[in-house]
From TrEMBL:
InterPro entries: Carb_kinase_PfkB-like, PfkB_dom, Ribokinase-like. It comes from the Bacteria. Residues 3-129 form the Carbohydrate kinase PfkB domain. Keywords: Kinase, Transferase. Gene3D superfamilies: 3.40.1190.20. Belongs to the carbohydrate kinase PfkB family. The keyword Kinase applies. One of its GO terms (molecular function) is kinase activity. This is PfkB family carbohydrate kinase.
Amino acid sequence: MPEIVEYSDIVFANEYDAVKILGIKSNVDVDGDISDEDYKDIMQQLIDKYSLKMVLTTKRETVNSNHNNIYCMLYTDKKLYKSKKYYIKNIIDRIGTGDSFAAGILSGIYLFDNYKDILEFATASFCIKHSIPGDWNLTTKDEVINLMKAENGLDVKR
């Protein structure tokens, strides 16, 4: 995996991936929750080691198999951006949610000129996919933007 990361600008990885797979050194136990400061330290090391521009990750708090609390993070230019948190109940399908997040980041880079909106668009895309069966996120840009702008949790309008 490090051989591929060397040729990347954007990497989707969490603290566990950075330490256990990509060779980042840390005294932090990455098998559990870590502080934002520890996360920033690990991600900055990852950016420095591989000359990356951006590192992204999803965070999932599992209440049960049908209820997850979700937010995402983007680290770039020594700054950590955190999305708003979504409380997702009555999950239909988790298959394809990570792909939906990645596609949301790439689309967000094209659509927006700031990291916060890029992250919020990708997080909304990630979250809305939980309501769609199958491996594809069959939503429109406008549906994702409506969720992104919603202020009261997962308010999916179709």
